[in-house]
Amino acid sequence: MDQERQWALFRYWIERDLVTYIFIEPRLQCALYDHATAAGEDRALIERAFGQRRRGRDGILRYSPGHRDHFHIRFRCAEHDWRCGEV
């Protein structure tokens, strides 16, 4: 995983409030967390992404079994997309 690029993509989505969840393996979350903190990212953004307890259930990045080598993203519904529903 290219941590710098992966974090840049996730940060883009999170800062623009485009995603509700990103499901990813805990060890990959740890690598991204370490990269974000070492890069001096804003603490509020890190807490929003990873949760207050790091790898907790209150962040956007969350564990879901079967995501060792990929991730899934749950994007927010577009404002005027009547076919989309938040789950």
- Tally of helical runs: 3
Mean pLDDT: 88
How far apart lie the N and C ends? 29 Å
Strand content: 5-15%
Q: What is the string of SSEs from the N terminus onward? A: HEHHEE
Q: What percent of the residues sit in helical stretches (DSSP H or I)?
A: 25-40%
Instruction: Characterize the largest beta sheet: strand count, sense, and whether it forms a barrel.
Output: 3 strands, mixed
- Spatial order of strands in the largest sheet: 2-1-3
Low-confidence stretches: none
- Estimated radius of gyration: 13 Å
Total beta strand runs: 3
SSE class: alpha+beta
Shape: globular
Description:
This protein has 87 residues and is α+β, with helices and mostly antiparallel strands. It is 39% helix and 13% strand. The protein has helices at 3-15, 26-38, 43-50; strands spanning 19-23, 61-62, 72-75. A 3-stranded mixed sheet has the order 2-1-3, covered by helices on one side. Helix 1 (3-15) crosses helix 2. The protein is globular and about 40 Å long.
Any descriptors?
87 residues; single chain; globular; alpha+beta; three-stranded mixed beta sheet; 3 strands; 39% helix
How are the SSEs ordered, and which strands pair?
Blueprint: H1 3-15, E1 19-23, H2 26-38, H3 43-50, E2 61-62, E3 72-75
Helix pairs in contact: 1-2
Explain briefly what this protein structure is.
By secondary structure, this protein is an alpha+beta fold. It is built from 3 helices and 3 strands.
